[in-house]
Every structure is written in structure tokens, then in C-alpha cells.
Amino acid sequence: MTKARIEGLLAAFPKLMTGGRQHTFVETESVRYVYQPLDKLYMLLITTKASNILEDLETLRLFSRVVPEYCAQLTEAEVLNQAFNLLFAFDEIVALGYRESVNLAQVRSFVEMDSHEEKIYQAVRQTQEREAANRMRERAKELQRERLEAAKRGAPPRSQMSFGSGFGSSTMSSASVKEPLIETPTTPARDTRPVGRSAMKLGSRGTDADSFVSRLRSEGDVAANAPVAASVAAAHDPPANIDHKDVHLRFEERLNLVAGRDGDIQNFELSGLLTLRISNEQFGKIRVHVDNKDSRSLQLQTHPNVDKEAFRSSGVIGLKQSQRPFPLHSDVGVLKWRLTHAGDDKMAPLSVNCWPSEGVNGGCDVNIEYELEQDHLSLSDVNINIPLPSSGNISLVVHQWEGSYTQKGRTLVWSVPIVNAQQKTGTLEFTVSPAVPNDFFPLNVTWTSDTSLAMLTATKVTQAEDGTPVDFSKEISFHADKYEIV
């Protein structure tokens, strides 16, 4: 679309707003305007008439929730003042005209580009700079003392002697040479920076720390505690991934769930993928034995090159043409599974109940409780994002909580480190004023997990020719693409 076309469509919109009636969209011969009032402004989407209006309304609602995150007041001047932040946020929601599968918390995280590793790196670097400066001052004082003592004895200072001896002359007069405060090493320090232009990388402590220490060495001295600081930074590194053997299996599951406030599941879709990676050609011809202990109606689908009959009868994943090997050094998807809502409201891995009730002085008392519904799961880093009223100044008082909580803009983030069969439930109680019950929906839940919702597991891997057992490694990843309580 050209700029003139867009300006023409925008100019036509106010003329279509006739009668003062409240609608969510208005159509012309070629386009559809989907809009929502924001005080004295309008949040407007221009789409084709063939687009899905339900998806457009959901996108519009996410746009309207993003604006108060960056604009303290919903005025034209404030919107113009925050134009760049809003554009960056909008770009995370819609790319090339299509809606991205993101929520408000993800948009906020992408725009902020907050990196815990970068903060650690900055702290370590500042410590190194302070220690290096202290060492340089101490070294300068030491050299100054040596120079004064040498002057009293009538001998040239140590730095001048070494300077002269380097060139085969030890008779240079002390009056003809200006003594530097800091000795310069005779061998240049090795520069550890990569050659050529490279992009910014958050959290790359090792190379930058080395090059920083090298620059200190070239300027005069090295901080004595730099290796200690580097080891402290390394101690904060995330744990290394599991050792990948020559045969590695990865179970990955994604969940999309929308639940009502009463606990009823409105939308549930679990999708999973088993990928196989082989790093040694002697294990190219193998069979993976999969055990399905899930009593629910999982929809299983194997890769077209996999022997479907062998999988149906005995749960064995192998190629139709047994003489052919699996590809090497690449992740090959061999099995997909899908589970959808079948009227069972207990399918959700985690139930979240939010009970806002109107209190005194126009405020709300909110009680939120979570409970693990599937005992075989273990969820880590569970974050429940609770929206707060978007207008005016609010007062938030938290009375009871499990784990920890933080307020980020107009969102209260309730964090629980782990939820499992031993720690199944938790509660959060807080009071917000002014507020109404609808201000606290929809809730958004995120987590990471190394357990899967579908009870699929690989029991063993064998050679296709003689059935010899093959040593293998596996990893499981289960997370929510979308988990909302509306």
C-alpha cells in the first residue's frame, strides 16, 4: 500500500463514524475498519474484508492493552512522545501484515530486551575497572617512591635503566629522559577481539572480559583479581545442557489454552514433536521404541518415511526402507502428536482461579489460587501475569503470597520457582484501589518444564539389523505458547 492510499483510508474513517453509535467495525467496498475507543482517541485496524474479524478483534484488544504500558495519559501528545516505543511494541504484534503468536508479557520482554546475563557481565566489568584503577594508582605510587629513593642515592630509576638497556646503552642521563609514571611492557598484549564487524551479543562475557584485561595489560598493569572476577561471572552461567550422545531424542510440547473464569476450558490444543538427531554414521540404521501410557485420545502421526505398521503394532519408529539410514547431523522430526479438548475440564496442567470482589472505597480484594492438575508434571519458573487497572494512580497492597511477586508497569507478576506433586497449590491475596473485578482479566501464565503433558516416552533404541541396544540421550521441553484465563 502506498502512503497516499493509507492517508486516504485514514481520512475517510471519521466520515464513517456517523450517528455516534458504538460499534466495533465499519466496512466499505474494499476494506474493513476495526476500532476501539481509547478515551479521546481511537485504536484503529484497517484490514481486508476477507480477514477473520475475531482474530482482528483479539489483535485490536492486544494493541489497546499495549498503549497504556507506555503512555501515562491517553492523549495525542503522549502518544507522539512515546511513538518509537509504541512502534517497537506494535512491530512485535504484527509482522508483514500477519499477527504474531505473542501476549502482552512477551511483547514487554522483547521490547525491554532485559538480560540477566548482561547485568552480571556489566557488574563484573565495573568491578574489574575499579580494581584495575586501584592497582594502577598503587603502582604509580610505588614507582614514584622508587624514583625518589633512586634520586637520593644518585642512581637512575629502574624504569630508565631498563629503557636504556633495551637499546644497548646504559649511560643515558636522567635529565634527558622524562620518566613515565607507569612502565610499558616490552611485548604487546594479544587483542582477543574478533576481526571484522560483528553484531551485538548480550551476555558474551568471556571474550569481552579477556579483551578488557588485555587492554589493561597494554596500558600498564593487570588487575590481580581479574581471574577471580571472571570465575564469579562463570559461576552465574546457566547450567550446561545435558550431554548429547550419538543418538539424541528431543520431545517438545506446546500448549495453547484459553479457560473461563469458572474453570471451563474454552480452547485446548496440545501439539508435540519427537525429533531424532544422529551424530555417528554407525547408528544411522536404528529403531526407536516408544511407549504410550496416555489414556487420552492422542492423535499420533509419523513421518511419511517411517514404517507406520510397525509403529501401530509395537510402537517402533523405523524407516520403511530398512537399508536406508537416518540423516546425520540434523534434527529429523519422526513423530507428531496432538491432543484437543474433549469436554474434560481436568485436562489443563494447571488450574488458576481468580476471585476479585469489590471492597470499600472503590477498591477490589483479589484472591488467586493455582493447583497442579496433573501429578506427573513438574513446572519450573511459573509466572502468573495479572493485569492491573490501566487508568489513574492505583494503590496495591499484597497481603499473602507464595514464591515472590513484582509489579511491572500495569501488571503484577506472581512468580513461583517450582510446582509439582509435593507443592501443588499456592495462593496470592492483594488489594487494589480504585478497581473493578474486570480489570484483573485476562490472566496469562507461563512456565518451563522438563516433563511432558502427554505420557509418551522412549524406552530404548536398538540397531535395525540385529536389535543390539544403542546408548541414547533424551530431553523434554514443555511450555505454553498461550495460557490465558479470560
UniProtKB/TrEMBL annotation:
List each copy of the MHD domain by range.
244-486
Stretches of Low complexity bias are at 159-176
Which cellular compartments is it found in?
Cytoplasm; Cytoplasmic vesicle, COPI-coated vesicle membrane; Golgi apparatus membrane
What membrane topology does this protein have?
Peripheral membrane protein
Note the Gene3D superfamilies from the entry: 3.30.450.60, Mu homology domain, subdomain B (2.60.40.1170)
- Entry-linked CDD domains: AP_delta-COPI_MHD (cd09254), Delta_COP_N (cd14830)
What's a single GO BP term from this record? protein transport
Which family does this protein fall into? Belongs to the adaptor complexes medium subunit family. Delta-COP subfamily.
Know the name of this protein?
Coatomer subunit delta
In which organism is this protein found? Diatraea saccharalis
